[in-house]
Amino acid sequence: MTVPTGDAVWTACWAAWKAKADYREDIEQHAREREPLHRWILASRPPESARWRVLEVGCGTAIDACVIAEDPQAFVVGSDRDAGAIVVAQRIAASFVHRPHFLVDDAAALSFPDATFDLVFSQGFLEHFRDPLPYLREQVRVLKPSGYLIIDVPQTFAGFGLYSLRKQWKIHRGTWPWGWETQYSYPALRRLGASVGLVSCGVAGYGFDGLLNLFANPHVMIDKHRWLGRWPLAQVFKRWYLRSLRDPNERVWRWVCSHWGHWLLICLVVRFRKTSACA
């Protein structure tokens, strides 16, 4: 199979999404997996304002924007440069009571005045640019003074670094389905934010990979891998795990994720605050 590159990656991606007849499973899975991101966004709501304005840059399917728009006091905008993405986003939004507003827009030259939004966020966006600064500066520009900017990107040390190594090898071979991308450690992303005057004020991580997923969710991995599910001892372990070990194991991993998730898990979420020193 030939993996598309450049803009062809996203043309193929949105064509596949538009071919779907039902988005319910995607919405449920997405909302469940990205709960840490949504929690940070909702925690950034201005307490003094009855109405707050939110922008998702590079919104893609815009499921995150749709989840946030369920807050009736949120005015949410989803922007993407690809018209195909906006078509998909509008279809997905039809499943929600409160819907974002969508537009095709250039993330390097956003069509909004300065200081328009209380919060700007992106997920799976910034890592696709070899020079992210023009896009980051635009997000800062449209952010109100003391507003929040939340960035969600792949984390360098995910799965003890094995996830990033596998991804970069696939990019080198041209078999990674999302084209070129990089990854960030928490210190690197914090420095990037500081270069445009942003101050880090919160961090989280989410998304298990490989061995960590086996430790955190063994019952899921047994069901996911048919060869493992056919092994009788694995089914015995699964029944014992669900009966006796699941609750304490999940408590342990919740603690690990809350303290070390930004060093171990696939996605890194950093919340920044805009300051008067912002460019």
Supply the key terms.
279 residues; Rossmann fold; 7-stranded mixed sheet; alpha/beta; single chain; 2 domains
Please give a structural write-up.
This protein is of the alpha/beta class. It has two domains: 7-207 and 257-274, Rossmann fold, CATH 3.40.50; 212-253, no CATH class. 47% of the residues lie in helices and 19% in strands. It has twelve helices and seven strands. The protein has helices at 7-18, 24-33, 35-43, 63-69, 83-93, 133-141, 162-173, 186-194, 210-216, 218-224, 226-229, 232-264; strands at residues 52-57, 74-80, 101-104, 117-123, 143-154, 198-206, 267-274. The protein has a seven-stranded mixed β-sheet with strand order 3-2-1-4-5-7-6, with helices on both faces. Helix 1 packs parallel to helix 5 (83-93) and helix 9 (210-216) packs across helix 10. The longest helix is centred in the last third of the chain and has 33 residues, at 232-264. The mean pLDDT is 91.
